[in-house]
């Protein structure tokens, strides 16, 4: 035999030479090189002759597993909603604290100061002159002016740091991020391929507002507000009357403005009477009367200032707290409006497919077993029937003897 037999002989990569023609050099280096070449040739032939692997068998997920997955998606949405709610309460509490602090430091001292009262007196006079003597229109115009001052001195400076519409946007994005994190843990839990799970999320509507978005499109958008349907939802929520960021202090300022306007009208009337009297009695006496009236008015204002500040503080805080509670709890116009809009849509879409807990049904009440009456077997002909007392006091048994 002068050629290598077996699979090496059929390999097209190597032109095998007869063993008799192999060199006789005893050098180990040449021998090792030959062995390596043979091994490479064998590996190449084996790789070419290996049959192709069959395609992987697709993983089939049962309907009960998909129902359980839907239940986990609903649970993830509820958990994300709870955490987003706690986050919004913390931010709203911070906003309220800043508004209280700035109201106390900026608006109340300004409103109750002497020069502000002088300026308000001039405005009330001007309002009345342009209202043909009507009293309440002047009060309403003064309330509007004070509302603008409250907006400029309190709400807008605080809004540069934090405001309700910003809180709503941050809370909604937090909900989406938390939901995204929890959804990533579901496929490994049930051994579901990622592509099948993504297709399932594609079938769940998250936003119906045009152009619409599925749950997959919502949780994969980065940044979140780049998703067109999400941006349309936020815009619609901001434009709802009474939504976050549209609060005004008119309800809290109007009672104080009315009281202030009435007192300013009284002061203006007193000044007019004092001016008329001083003109009648002469320059020297009139000067004394005018100075006395001004001193009395200033003293009266200073005495009324603590009461006025307390009344203003009470009215503003009451109106603010009422709106604050509405912004916290109202599902349509509050800071959680975006979260509720998304969670209700997602959870409602899965309401008919989630796995419901098994209902408890009490076992049917068993009827007590009733023993059949004793059967009397007639004796054969010619045999007497013998009566025997049984174990029970009210039952008789019969035996044949």
Automatic annotation (TrEMBL):
Residues 370-382 have a biased composition (Pro residues). Residues 392-401 have a biased composition (Acidic residues). It comes from the Bacteria. Residues 358-401 are annotated as: Disordered. This is Lipoprotein.
């Amino acid at each position: 035999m002068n050629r290598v037999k077996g699979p090496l002989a059929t390999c097209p990569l190597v032109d095998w030479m007869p063993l008799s023609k192999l060199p006789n050099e005893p050098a180990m280096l040449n021998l090792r090189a030959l062995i390596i070449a043979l091994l490479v040739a064998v590996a190449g032939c084996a790789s070419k002759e290996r049959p192709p692997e069959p395609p992987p068998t697709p993983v089939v997920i049962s309907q009960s597993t998909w129902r359980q997955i839907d239940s986990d998606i609903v649970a993830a949405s509820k958990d994300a909603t709870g955490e987003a709610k706690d986050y919004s309460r913390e931010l709203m509490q911070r906003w309220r604290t800043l508004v209280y602090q700035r109201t106390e430091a900026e608006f109340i001292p300004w409103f109750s100061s002497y020069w502000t009262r002088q300026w308000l007196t001039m405005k009330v006079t001007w309002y009345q002159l342009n209202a043909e003597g009507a009293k309440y229109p002047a009060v309403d115009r003064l309330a509007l002016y004070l509302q603008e001052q409250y907006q400029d001195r309190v709400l807008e400076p605080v809004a540069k740091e934090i405001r309700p519409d910003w809180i709503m946007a941050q809370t909604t994005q937090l909900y989406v991020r938390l939901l995204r994190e929890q959804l990533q843990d579901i496929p490994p839990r049930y051994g579901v391929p990622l592509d099948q799970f993504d297709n399932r999320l594609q079938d769940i509507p998250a936003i119906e507002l045009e152009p619409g978005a599925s749950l997959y499109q919502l949780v994969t958008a980065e940044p979140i507000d780049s998703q067109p349907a999400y941006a349309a939802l936020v815009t619609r929520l901001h434009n709802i009357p009474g939504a976050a960021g549209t609060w005004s202090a008119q309800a809290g300022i109007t009672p104080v403005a009315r009281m202030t306007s009435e007192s300013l009208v009284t002061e203006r009337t007193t000044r007019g009477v004092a001016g008329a009297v001083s003109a009648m009695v002469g320059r020297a006496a009139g000067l004394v009367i005018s100075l006395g009236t001004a001193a009395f008015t200033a003293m009266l204002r200073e005495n009324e200032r603590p009461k006025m500040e307390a009344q203003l503080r009470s009215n503003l805080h009451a109106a603010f707290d009422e709106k604050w509670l509405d912004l916290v709890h109202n599902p349509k116009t509050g800071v959680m409006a975006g979260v509720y809009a998304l969670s209700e849509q997602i959870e409602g879409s899965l309401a008919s497919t989630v796995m419901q807990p098994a209902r408890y049904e009490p076992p049917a009440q068993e009827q007590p077993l009733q023993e059949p009456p004793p059967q009397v077997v007639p004796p054969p002909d010619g045999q007497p029937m013998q009566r025997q007392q049984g174990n029970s006091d009210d039952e008789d048994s019969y035996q044949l003897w």
